[in-house]
Design goal:
InterPro entries: AcuC (IPR003085), HDACs (IPR000286), His_deacetylse_dom (IPR023801), His_deacetylse_dom_sf (IPR037138), Ureohydrolase_dom_sf (IPR023696)
CATH class: Alpha Beta
Radius of gyration: 19 Å
Keywords: Acetoin catabolism
Protein name: Acetoin utilization protein AcuC
Organism: Streptomyces radicis
Number of helices: 11
Shape: globular
CATH topology: Arginase, Chain A
Family: Belongs to the histone deacetylase family.
Order of helices and strands: EHEHHHEHEHEEHEHEHHH
Number of domains: 1
């Protein structure tokens, strides 16, 4: 392996645009790339634009009638088939939707190719992480499931064990669904409880199909969960499962929407906790998968204050050139923020927090709702992996 890292980026991904009233504003992608450049990270990581995913690649996950429907909606948005999740309030149809969705998917698939071939250890596609798309339907702002497609490509290339870690505030339902019965894939999702948030799935009892018992891991946390509780849950479940599963590649999704400023969810996370989670995923890839790590973006609707900072930290971690959390955001970036949005950007790469969490081995508190959630997940899944809850 070369030891190099790669950032998958094409300016065209900013065309993934559902319109001015939609919360998934593509300016979040542009502002992230401008912040990456402002810190000089584009000189520390290989920036590569991949081709759009073709039909045979998209068909690794998505069914042909659905692909045909996306193409039709891309040409005739007013005729989008809402029965397939297209043309809805969540996922409006727009001209060129197929092309830009395939472009985003192509970046994730190419990153997976590069990692498996040994060209790089790490690849990042922060325009990706569109984890809600189903094999035959769009869902939750997601048209093509680039995360699932990247994993499917790894399996096609010969990978025998791929671990997927999803830290988005929403359940990674589309990826779980794609590999529900595939014992080669371990999907782990840490998310807000489905009682209070879309998509309404992701309970601990969802542990995989008959052919892959324990292949799906869900850690649903109550609204209002803090940094310390969230990081405790992540570390109380993920490391032991990775050690037991022995993945050859780690794919992680880093939605920024668990942040306390995000308008669409109800967790209380800081940028600093989210950065620590990205660092942990990087470390786990080195510990368990010889450094093979594909890192993706995801949700995130505080498009100026949160998303660009988190994903710039993600790129910096992958580049082995971490940005000091206390660093000031460069003036050139703040000017770009104002030019693109007529708003002011955040001045620091931190929310000023230094989260610490109790290790699971330090004891279980039955009165703590997060501890009860952690234990429910461990009890549901651990026995399938030969582990004690």
């Amino acid at each position: 392996m070369s030891g190099e890292a790669r950032l998958m980026w094409d300016e065209g991904v900013a065309g993934y645009d559902f319109g001015p009233a939609h919360p998934m504003d593509p300016v979040r992608l542009t502002l992230t790339m401008r912040l990456v450049e402002a810190f000089g990270l584009d000189r520390r990581i290989d920036v590569v634009a991949a081709s759009p995913a073709g039909d045979s690649t998209l068909a690794l996950v998505h069914r042909t009638p659905y692909l045909d429907a996306v193409r039709h909606a891309s040409l005739h948005p007013w005729e989008a088939d809402q029965r397939l999740g297209l043309g809805t309030d969540d996922t409006p149809a727009f001209p060129g939707m197929h092309e830009v969705s395939a472009l985003i998917a192509g970046q994730s698939v190419a990153g997976a190719d590069d990692i498996w071939r040994g060209d790089v250890q790490h690849a990042v596609n922060f325009s990706g992480g569109l984890h809600h798309a189903m094999p035959a339907a769009a869902s939750g702002f997601c048209v093509y499931n680039d995360a699932a497609l990247a994993i499917a490509r790894l399996l096609e290339l010969g990978a025998e064990r791929v671990a997927y870690i999803d830290t988005d505030v929403h359940h990674g339902d589309g990826v779980q669904d794609a590999f529900w019965d595939d014992p080669r894939v371990l999907t782990i999702s840490l998310h807000e409880h489905p009682r209070t948030l879309f998509p309404g799935t992701g309970l601990p009892e969802e542990t995989g199909g008959e052919a892959a018992p324990g292949g799906a891991v869900n850690i649903p946390l109550p609204a209002g969960t803090s940094d310390q509780e969230w990081l405790r849950a992540l570390h109380a479940v993920v490391p032991e499962l990775l050690a037991a599963f022995r993945p050859q590649v780690v794919v992680s999704q880093h939605g920024a929407d668990g942040h306390f400023e995000d308008p669409l969810a109800h967790l209380a996370l800081s940028l600093d906790a989210q950065r620590l989670a990205a660092e942990s995923c990087h470390d786990w890839a080195h510990q368990h998968a010889e450094g093979r790590w594909l890192a993706l973006g995801g949700g995130g609707y505080a498009v100026i204050d949160v998303v660009p900072r988190l994903w710039t930290h993600l790129v910096a971690i992958a580049a082995h050139a971490p940005v000091d959390p206390t660093a000031a955001t460069p003036d050139s970036w703040l000017k770009a923020v104002y030019a693109l949005t007529r708003q002011s950007g955040p001045r620091r790469m931190t929310d000023g927090r230094a989260p610490r969490w109790r290790d699971w081995a330090d004891g279980y508190d039955p009165a703590d709702t997060v501890d009860r959630a952690i234990l429910a997940t461990r009890r549901a899944v651990y026995p399938h992996h030969g582990l004690l809850p």
